[in-house]
Amino acid sequence: MKKTKFYVVWQGRKTGIFTDWKECEKQIKGFEDAKYKSFDSIAEAEAAIQGSYWEFVTKKEAKPALKEAPASIGSPIKDSIVVDAAWNTATGDMEYQGIYYQTGQRIFLQGPFADGTNNIGEFLAIVHALAYLQKKESNLPVYSDSRTAISWIRKKHANTKLALTPRNKPVFEMLQRAERWLATNTFSNKILKWETEYWGENPADFGRK
Known about the structure:
It is found in: Cytoplasm. Belongs to the RNase H family. This is Ribonuclease H. It comes from Dyadobacter sandarakinus. It catalyses: Endonucleolytic cleavage to 5'-phosphomonoester. The protein is an alpha/beta fold and 209 residues long. The protein has helices at 21-28, 42-49, 53-57, 118-135, 147-155, 169-184, 196-199, and strands at 6-11, 16-18, 35-39, 81-87, 94-100, 105-113, 142-144, 191-193. A five-stranded mixed beta sheet has the order 6-5-4-7-8, covered by helices on one side. A three-stranded antiparallel beta sheet has the order 2-1-3, sandwiched between helices. A hairpin with a 4-residue loop joins β5 (94-100) and β6 (105-113). α4 packs across α5 and α4 (118-135) packs across α6. It is globular and about 50 Å long. The protein starts with 5 loop residues before the first strand and ends in a 10-residue tail after the last helix.
């Protein structure tokens, strides 16, 4: 028997608690800066709706202390763009964003897109950042915490095993454009790995873990 989820919408077309994902999705899909989260019980949802969204999306289990970064890793470059993607396990929707690390300013946000994957989102985010920086004639480095996406950038090909469907056709069209951009453009920007175990959470993380 499928377990009932309770969806709290703090900011959307309608706010409140929803027990049906499709109904919740109507309130948040395409709504700029929508704020929502799922809970396993009605008691948790009722408590959440009385509080702030940020109280719940930032509430995480205790994590081990950060490791001291060796000299070979050092500290992240503040004058950089950091990218990340989010994949919704309930819907399969994917989105990605880029943040200017030094100020925390969001540079771009794309999605959600139906039936994507996290690695695809990470790959598209890196290419988006590179194209953005090219237009700005900037050689800022780009950070991602996805080794897979970084390897795809080097190969100029997204080696995804995701199957093409009518729902995710737009995602595959974006992948084709991204691969074409990589094949026809050159860039001097360094693509660097965000070292989470030493530096903490990626600043572009969506905070939904």
